[in-house]
């Protein structure tokens, strides 16, 4: 694990910008996916067919 800490300590500032951008994008994708799943489950609980409802998002 020391090699990882050493590599991160030597990374320039623009490297951190890239890392933050990638992690932010991944988190946004995960949150959107979770939200879609929650909406789908709510529709199923109401007795609606989520496959037949037009998706606007």
Can you offer a commentary on this structure?
- The protein is an all-alpha fold and 57 residues long.
- It has one domain.
- It has 2 helices and no strands.
- The protein is elongated and about 55 Å long.
- It starts with a helix and ends in a 12-residue tail after the last helix.
Topology, element by element:
Elements: H1 2-9, H2 13-45
How do the helices and strands follow one another from N- to C-terminus?
HH
Quote the average pLDDT.
Answer: 91
The major sheet is characterized as: none
Low-confidence stretches: none
Query: Helix/strand/pairing class, anyone?
Result: mainly alpha
Mass-distribution shape: elongated
Beta-strand residue percentage: under 5%
Beta-strand segment tally: 0
Domain count, please report it.
1
Radius of gyration, in angstroms, nearest whole number: 20 Å
Helix share, percent? over 70%
| Cα distance spanning the termini | 42 Å
Question: Can you count the helices?
Answer: 2
What's the quick description here?
This protein is an all-alpha fold. It has 2 helices and no strands.
Characteristics of this structure?
single chain; 57 residues; mainly alpha; 2 helices; 72% helix
């Amino acid at each position: 694990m020391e090699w990882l800490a050493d590599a991160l300590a030597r990374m320039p500032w623009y490297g951190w910008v890239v890392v933050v951008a990638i992690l932010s994008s991944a988190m946004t994708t995960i949150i959107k996916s979770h939200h879609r799943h929650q909406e789908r489950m709510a529709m199923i609980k109401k007795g609606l067919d989520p496959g037949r409802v037009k998706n606007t998002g």
